[in-house]
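Field guide to reading this record: the first block holds the primary sequence, the second block holds the structure written as C-alpha cells, and the final block holds curator observations. Each block starts with its own label. This record concerns N-acetylglucosamine transport system permease protein, catalogued under organism Microbacterium resistens.

BLOCK 1 — SEQUENCE
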Amino acid sequence: MSDRTSTFITVDKKAARRIRGGKTTTGDKVVGGVSHVVLIVWSVIVITPLAWTLMSSFKTSREVLASPFGLPAEWNLNNYISAWTQYNFGQMFINTVIVVGVSLVLVMVLGAMCAYVLARFALPGSRVIYYLMLAGLTFPVFLAIVPLFFVLQGMGLLNTLPGLILTYVAFALPFTVFFLFSFFKSLPYEIQEAAYVDGAGEWRTFFQVMLPMARPGLAAVAILNFLGLWNQFLLPVALNTDQGQYVLSQGMAAFASAAGYKVDFGALFAAVMITIVPVLITYIFFQRQLQGSVSQGTMK
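BLOCK 2 — STRUCTURE
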C-alpha cells in the first residue's frame, strides 16, 4: 500500500468518524444543557409528590399534621392494614382487578379482531363501521351517562360488576380500534399471503402470524387502556352506587369526603399507594414489550 493510499484511508476514517460522531457546537451544548435541566425539574415535580405520599403512608395523622415533611417515627404497615381491612379497600381492590382485568382482555381481543378485519379486508360497509368507531371517540362520556343508566337498568346490570365491565369495554373499544387500525394496515401483505400459501386459515393467520407482529402496538394500547380504565371515575360513580361493588377510584373519593374533618391521613395515603402501585408495576412490566419493531417480529 502506497503512502498516498494510506493518507487517503486515514483522511476517510477521520471524515467518517466526524460524520458519525459529529462536532459538538455551542448550540448543541446549550440545547443539551437546557434539556437536561428541564428533565431534572420535571422528574423532581413528578417524583416528589409520590415520595411524599409513600412516606406519609407510614405516619399517623398526628405526625402528618405536625411534621408533613419529616420521617415517620415508626415504619410499620398499620396504615395499610387499616386501609385494606377497616376501610374495605381490599374488597375494592379485588373489584377493580376483576373489572379492569376482564375489560382489558375483552377490549384487546375484540379491538384487535375488529381493527384487523377493517384494515386488511375490503368488506361492504367497512369504512362506515370505521368512521362510526371514530365518532365514538368524539362523543363525550358524560352525555351518555343517562342513556347508559337506563340501558343497564333495563338489562338488570345496574350496580353490578358485569354491567361495569360491559360499559368499560364499550368505552375503550373505539380508541383501541382507531389505534390498531393503522398498525395492522402497515403490516406487510406478503407475510399474510405466505401464511395462506402454507395452508393457514384466517384464524391461524391472525393469531399466530399477524398478532405477534403487532405486539408493540398491542402493548402500547394495552398500557393506555389499563391506565384509562383503572383511573376511570365518572362511569362507576354514576352506574355503580352499591358500596359492596365499589372500585378503587370511587372508594377513594367516598373515603375522603365521608371522613370530613376526621380524616385518617395515614390510612388515606396508604390507600393512595394501594391504588397507584399496580399502575406503576404494570407499566414497568409492559415497557419491555414496547421495545422492538415490526421488522423484528417478522424476522422471528
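BLOCK 3 — OBSERVATIONS
The chain has a mean pLDDT of 83.
Residues 89-120 form the longest helix (32 residues).
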